[in-house]
Amino acid sequence: MADAGAIGSPPKELLGFASYLHSPSKSGLRAREGVLNGRRVQYFKGKSALNALTKEEGGKKPRCASREEAVEWIQELLDFQLIVRCDRDAQAASMLRINPMQNVDEDTYYAWLYEGSQIMVILGGIGVVAVVLAGVMFPLWPSVLRNGTWYLSMVALGLLGLLFAIAIVRLIVYIITVIACPQGLWIFPNLFEDVGFFESFVPLHAWEAPKNANKPAAQSSAAGSADADAEASADAGTEHSKDE
């Protein structure tokens, strides 16, 4: 554990600890969204952080062996300004303000100043710039690449047009069958359902279930209940007459 001295570059060990605590998938610490000095931040309660660091889950040893060790780690995060102790506004819970006492307390809140690894952000920015430059420099592409791109775009437009055509045809078929029969016939009934690509085209067709399919069963059950009640009443009347 690093010594808490003058504020400088945090040691790698402390950065690794901050990365662990900052990731909900690793530590299980769930942070909330708040606003600190006009900036959107994530914040958590001290007690939740201590529980996440000392709780054993899935047979894995906790990050900290004791609650005192967890307090020391969190204090180092404060010393290197990776987190900051803050208070919530009484009227707006999402509005935060920095507390002058930068120590560890289970009942107070802490906002993240540490933003985690920026590698994915950098790679994403490079990717966006590369795509934009590639689009701008399209006239300078080799003829083979330009022709390939044109063919791919035509294939994509063809598939999109085929999807629209299938949707129109299946709607026409459904309307015709609804008029001709009590039930409507759907071609590719799972086409717009939340299923996989291949499952969208299985089965090939299906008849729509009638809306009142359950009514006869409900009516028959209701009739059966009424008959049972009538028989029970009749039996009761018979027993009463016998008693007289």
UniProtKB/TrEMBL annotation:
The chain crosses the membrane at residues 119-138, 150-173. It is a multi-pass membrane protein. One of its GO terms (cellular component) is endoplasmic reticulum membrane. Pfam families: Sec62. Residues 217-236 have a biased composition (Low complexity). It is found in: Endoplasmic reticulum membrane. Residues 215-244 are annotated as: Disordered. Keywords: Endoplasmic reticulum, Membrane, Protein transport, Translocation, Transmembrane, Transmembrane helix, Transport. GO terms for biological process: post-translational protein targeting to membrane, translocation. InterPro entries: Sec62 (IPR004728), Sec62_asco (IPR011553). NCBIfam families: sec62. Belongs to the SEC62 family. This is Translocation protein SEC62. It comes from Coemansia guatemalensis. The gene is SEC62.
